[in-house]
């Protein structure tokens, strides 16, 4: 009983701290520095954003496979608006937030009104949105982005890189939603038992659409940050990122069957992935091995959860 | 020994860790008899039967099957000695055929690698005939069968194993009236063949009809064994609960029904489900809904709260037409449905007791389809505390998952969560199914208390005695139509049963 509770509360955090300790011993001069920690956070910001959206989709026993494509499309549209002289904040609002919400609403409505599993809907969606990205960009990157945009969105704010601030603010806002609002409680209830939630008076159809809108907006913000960091919008940006998003949520303790998981855990899950990539770079391990390790980590953490997290 | 028993258990005790589940229990089974095992949930019936079927081994006492002493037997050995158990949740594999299910693991072989299908189907037809399933193809896939037929397949499987000790755990809980009669016919035929049957049930009228002897357990202790002929339901109930408590709940002194109409349903229709449903419920009234399983009562209730779409019809609350599109609208208008399958529809197992308890309250007091508003932990926990005291809910902490509670206590959460949500019309769908007598009475008194506070109640139940003792009027539903609505003063079992099984009104014939 105690073991289960402790694992569920501190398991992910424990793994994260353990990894930090191991790396600090292996590479004290490069790893254990303030600059490197900022670097890890910065590299993880995009993963955190898409993972947070993914977390909500998984929390209702669904999934959103389209987050990588949405990142690509929103980034492309934001860059397009910027390159055509549209005001920076308007570009971010329309290209990132509104477009992300719109795509999320499309996903959510398709899930609700076709009755198909979100896996199918967002699997289809992922190639559609990527196709649209390639179409509007003519498969070419957009480079001519105003310098201001990069220096603000990818710049510093009192010494802290803006992407980190964006990710943290979004995480705090979503943690507030899950912990303090009725909306959040309803989402957990929907994930726990859809029929019971429906009969209790929760508008489960509307709620599903809202969850996919949250996922879309998170991916849209990630798209904006991506363009700012790269200084360009690549038509294939974010390809395969759904793996990172799903992995972060799962490593962070989100139950694949819905109803269980925490925002904090997901952030730590994303940081673990960032930390491992950073560590292997420092240790000069080739990228192939990084991928193998991440796969092993996904399977390993869920296996651990199965043995330690149940009685 | 003058008499030979199929099963004899003497002073059997069983403890799990420190918990004494059975204490000095005596039980015997003769060939050709139905021995009923009676007791509230947790009385030790299943533990005793698990010892008989080799799942558990006893801690103390003696246990004989057909005169041979059994110590540390395994389920396989018990089966070889003729013991079969038919569980409440049937254990057939839906995707396989009837024949494959019956002979699973021992299919007749033609060669080393192939099955002798001809023999398989012949043997299957032989055992199916013994349970009265003559016109059914042995190759039929089990998923296409009705629950009652699946149950008979389980019995056929037991017979094919040459079992002469058959344990039936609440076999009638999901059968219709006719199907129950058919099952009893088959039980009688088995008795003639010398099969001994242990029959576990909560329904006393059935117990009186089918049983020969009855043994009562309470809190793991053996109370008594009596001949069915020498007892009556009131006596059985008092032995079960240990105090004088009538099996038929005493109807409230007088009806509290007012003269104001709370709900009026007009011409409600849904294709293939129900048609032309018309009724009204007054404030303070308890309107019972009786019918066979599948008659359409649940569908009517779900259509009223907007959980399922209706094709046509109007719903009026206090004489005003309301348009209820989903359960949220219903809740806002003061209607709540307590669903029939509590684990599947009643609660969220990832939420705690207090979080489940406050769900309707939080939604009722929010707006925009329940999207707005913050949580209010103090108020929510207070709601849970109120439910615990109002319904005598037993839990170790409000932070427990509802899943950890016993069935009766789970039901208290499912019922209780509506009590503090400002509901005027409660729809109870089979609120007492599968729960023991004590909790049943608890729920009846809650229903009555609500009516006393001028709340209206639609009570769907398949237990007629329950409806007769609690309702002010009883609507009888047959194949999606309301046959007749009986005022309680002129309601009797025979007329209601006639209407529910034939769809015709006796009164109508007389008038």
Automatic annotation (TrEMBL), chain A:
The chain crosses the membrane at residues 12-31, 37-58, 65-82, 88-112, 119-137, 157-177, 209-228, 264-282. The keyword Chloroplast does not apply. GO terms for molecular function: transmembrane transporter activity. It is found in: Cell membrane. It is a multi-pass membrane protein. Coiled coil: none annotated. Its main location: membrane. InterPro entries: ABC_transp_permease. It comes from the Bacteria. The keyword Transmembrane applies. Keywords: Cell inner membrane, Cell membrane, Membrane, Transmembrane, Transmembrane helix, Transport. GO terms for cellular component: plasma membrane. This is D-allose transport system permease protein. It comes from Halanaerobium salsuginis.
TrEMBL record, chain B:
Its main location: membrane. The keyword Repeat applies. SUPFAM superfamilies: P-loop containing nucleoside triphosphate hydrolases. Keywords: ATP-binding, Cell membrane, Membrane, Nucleotide-binding, Repeat, Sugar transport, Translocase, Transport. Pfam families: ABC_tran. Residues 7-244, 263-504 form the ABC transporter domain. GO terms for molecular function: ATP binding; ATP hydrolysis activity. It is found in: Cell membrane. The keyword Kinase does not apply. It is a peripheral membrane protein. It comes from the Bacteria. InterPro entries: AAA+_ATPase, ABC_carbohydrate_import_ATPase, ABC_transporter-like_ATP-bd, ABC_transporter-like_CS, P-loop_NTPase. One of its GO terms (cellular component) is plasma membrane. PANTHER family: CARBOHYDRATE TRANSPORT ATP-BINDING PROTEIN MG119-RELATED, D-ALLOSE IMPORT ATP-BINDING PROTEIN ALSA-RELATED. This is Allose ABC transporter ATP-binding protein. It comes from Halanaerobium salsuginis.
